[in-house]
Amino acid sequence: MTNNNAFFFHTALIFLCAFTGGVIADSGVQKIPEQKYLEIIDAPAKIIKFMDPQSPILGMASKCETFPIVGKGTTWCRILYKGDTGWIEISKGKVVDSPTVISAKIPGIMMGVFIGGSLLLILVVGSIFVISSLKSHKVKRYAPKRDVLIISSSEKEILYSLTETSTTLSKCLREIGFKVTAARDIDHARNLLIHYTPDVLAVNWQMERNILPKVEAIISGMEKSSSRIVRFYNVPDPTEIS
Questions:
Q1: How far is CA 63 from CA 100, 102, 147, in A?
Q2: Rounded CA separation 55/47 (Å)
């Protein structure tokens, strides 16, 4: 071949490659001129580092996830995966022109669902705690008083207005569910209150003189004395005292 013919041959070859494009061989993968994406339709799909049976697995793709395609062969394609490139079987997905809106937003949607669910759980647990606290406080505050200490030297006789029959005060209280303890005088009551804390004190006003300050003295030494109920009976009508 003469020099002129060789020059003409090389020039023609350069123009042929420039106008027809070239196929770049990279492990049998053809470069894709326009960006395509692989949308996973058969999950889970294994993504491997390189085309080898001993290749490490980069991850598993979920259904509806889409990945940019870097290169494409007959049965495998190369994709971008978490800042790296990996290989995945083409049969595990379909080639699309753009990622779907749902798949593109899956991480954000999952994060939103997680945060929303967490906030809802906190709200529900907090509401249950507040309601339980209010109920327990209400029950504790308004619990019926059932333990009565009667301070009297004698039984108080009372009359049933409906049946016109008489009974004692202690018996009447027991019949309606009270636990009744009796103290015959102030000293007896003081000794009982050392290890006993009644809800209600019923005091016979006529038991002895100056009963009020004595009762106040023993009540002041009681635990949580402000929550105790004190009732005097047989109290004279001031209008009848001359």
A1: 12, 11, 69
A2: 10
DSSP secondary structure string for all residues of 104-121 = HTHHHHHHHHHHHHHHHH
Distance CA 101, CA 172 (A): 79
Under CATH, domain 24-104 is a member of which superfamily?
A: SH3 Domains (2.30.30.40)
CATH class of 147-240: alpha beta
Q: What is the DSSP string of 37-48?
A: EEEE-SSSEEEE
Q: What is the pLDDT of residues 193-226, one digit of tens each?
A: 888 888 888 888 888 878 888 888 887 777 665 6
Instruction: Answer for the pair 186, 208: CB distance below 8 angstroms, yes or no.
Output: yes
- pTM greater than the 0.70 cutoff: no
Residue-wise pLDDT for 168-177, tens only, equals 888 888 888 8
3 to each of 9, 17, 169, 191, how far by Cα in Å? 10, 22, 139, 134
